[in-house]
Design a protein that fits this description.
The protein is mainly α. It has one domain. The protein has 17 helices and 8 strands. A 3-stranded mixed beta sheet has the order 3-8-7. The chain has a 3-stranded antiparallel beta sheet with strand order 5-4-6. A hairpin with a 7-residue loop joins strand 4 and strand 5. The longest helix is centred in the first third of the chain and has 31 residues. It is globular.
């Protein structure tokens, strides 16, 4: 039954990609600038869906599949500890413009990813089962313990995302998926070309996941983060069949609302799954391999308040751009970027496109939208997580969301 449902969902998502209106396939300036490196989404869907089910078929054969899955999960997250440190070094080398070190760190990461790939199938199965268990607890199963859509993830290197914004305001103008293997020099060349030829601020950024089916979730991260990201992408799958997701691209507010709800609730589901998984996998007072503090965690423990400083930066940039002082805003952003790097935050490029991308997630410091606070207030007023997900999934517009929030806050 679940297998047939997965087949049906995958077929639907591939069909959606294939039948897009022809106008949407015409290259925009960002696509032209990155044309040799565009990501083939349909090919990825077909390749990964089939390979996923070959693994499932093998696991259904007699043998010690459960023991092997548990062993692979432990080894995978142990490998992630090493990958996480390499990724941190790679990001910092790129932020400090150390091209030779960036290349050497990338080679190390490629080797580590190859080793992790051999273990990822078992880890994916484990992640899916624990997130599904949380969803069942929250009453989101349609019958028995069947969750629709089924939780399905691939731990991979997701595509890069090219984002552009006008220079005189912060606005997410273009989004283009690029191949995961695009290196630093190519990323910077694409960004320079768009600035020079189109007068656009551009950023080619790593992303944590993509709501393909199976979902693409970045490898090389701690277990808690991986569970949160996997839950985030499942929420996009769930919303895809409901008004909230179907109206996601109506306007910026609906896009931000979708992403912010998935971000806030994905963390909550991921934390629940992490607690369950740690209890089953670990002896008391132990630490899950791959869940050691990251560089960002250590930086966050310092006196430097990243959230406050990033929000201050965004507000000052908005003021400068509103006054028409584009070059001053860009000089200020580079000055602030260097400050963040000095304090352990590996930001390679801080520009209008950076804020256009990260501002989409209204619960993050780079955002100035009120949606982040509104979603958190809404969540606090609906104690049951399952009820919250069902309610927000039926919302068709940002105005409707605000009306419901107002009713909850005023006892309506």
């Amino acid at each position: 039954m679940i297998g047939a449902l997965r087949w049906g969902l995958a077929a639907l998502l591939v069909l959606v990609a294939l039948v897009l209106p022809s106008d949407s396939r015409r290259f925009n300036p960002a696509q032209w600038a990155a044309a040799p490196y565009l990501y083939n989404l349909v090919s990825w869907e077909l390749d990964n869906f089939f390979s996923k089910w070959l693994f499932r078929a093998a696991g259904a054969l007699p043998g010690d599949a459960d023991a092997a899955r548990e062993r692979d999960t432990h080894e995978y997250f142990s490998m992630n500890t090493e990958m996480s440190h390499i990724r941190g070094g790679l990001r910092m080398a790129a932020a400090r413009d150390l091209h030779e070190r960036t290349a050497s760190m990338q080679a190390l990461l490629d080797d580590a990813e190859a080793q992790a790939a051999a273990l990822s199938d078992g880890a994916e199965e484990t992640i899916e089962s624990y997130i599904s268990a949380v969803l069942v607890e929250e009453g989101l199963a349609v019958f028995g313990e069947v969750v629709l859509p089924p939780v399905d993830v691939r731990l991979v290197q997701p595509p890069k995302l090219l984002v552009t914004s006008p220079r005189d305001r912060i606005y997410r103008k273009h989004d283009v998926l690029l191949r995961p293997d695009v290196d630093l020099s190519t990323r910077e060349e694409i960004e320079r070309r768009l600035l020079r030829d189109e007068n656009l601020s551009a950023l080619v950024e790593d992303i944590g996941g993509l709501a393909t089916y199976p979902a693409s979730v970045a490898n090389g991260h701690p277990m808690r983060w991986t569970l949160q990201a996997s839950a985030h992408e499942w929420l996009h799958h769930y919303f895809f069949f409901r008004p909230l997701g179907q109206r996601m691209f109506d306007d910026d507010d609906m896009f931000n609302l979708n992403e912010t709800i998935a971000s806030v609730v994905g963390k909550e589901i991921g934390d629940r799954a992490f607690k369950m998984m740690a209890e089953d996998f670990l002896p008391p007072a132990d630490t899950m391999p791959g869940d050691a503090p990251s560089d960002a965690d250590e930086a966050a423990a310092s006196p430097f308040d990243f959230g406050a400083e990033m929000r201050r930066t965004r507000l000052e940039v908005e003021t400068l751009l509103e006054d028409g002082r584009v070059e001053d805003a860009e000089a200020y952003m580079e000055e602030r970027r260097r400050l963040f790097v000095e304090n352990g935050y590996a930001i390679r490029k801080l520009n209008q496109a950076y804020f256009a991308f990260y501002g989409t997630y209204a619960d993050l410091p780079a955002a100035i939208s009120p949606i982040g606070d509104e979603v958190k207030r809404f969540r606090a007023l609906v104690p049951d997580l399952g009820d919250f997900i069902r309610i927000v999934s039926g919302i068709s517009s940002y105005d409707e969301f605000l009306r419901l929030l107002d009713e909850l806050e005023n006892g309506g």
